[in-house]
């Protein structure tokens, strides 16, 4: 991220133009925790950001911050559940494999986000 964009983001957060934070939500009885950045304008385009096989981590939050600095509202979805952040390759394969094998469930999770 360029220094100018970083400064714009930090200024917007400091000035109250952006509201950022974790959002807990429920889909089909399971709890999830996404990350939301709301700009000063509700007219801004909303971007739904989906994590990779690590789950929702600081990387996705950084990318959400970068999109917000460009003027977008951003919601980084959680497709694994609160606190599920796999580190072992086997766990990453298992969790993402379950989503790939049940596309209807993945669509439900995305719609719930």
Overview of the molecule:
The protein has 113 residues and is of the alpha+beta class. It contains four helices and four strands. The chain has helices spanning 3-15, 58-69, 89-101, 103-112, and strands at 19-27, 30-38, 46-50, 73-77. A four-stranded mixed β-sheet has the order 1-2-4-3. A hairpin with a 2-residue loop joins strand 1 (19-27) and strand 2. Helix 1 (3-15) crosses helix 2. The longest helix is centred in the N-terminal third of the chain and has 13 residues, at 3-15. The protein is globular. Mean pLDDT is 85; it is low at 1-16.
Give descriptors for this structure.
single chain; alpha+beta; disordered N terminus; globular
Give a quick account of the main beta sheet: strands, pairing sense, barrel closure: 4 strands, mixed
Low-confidence stretches: 1-16
N- to C-terminal distance: 26 Å
Structural class: alpha+beta
Strand count: 4
Helix content: 40-55%
Provide mean pLDDT, rounded: 85
Shape: globular
Radius of gyration: 15 Å
Please count the helical segments. 4
In terms of DSSP E residues, the strand content is 15-25%
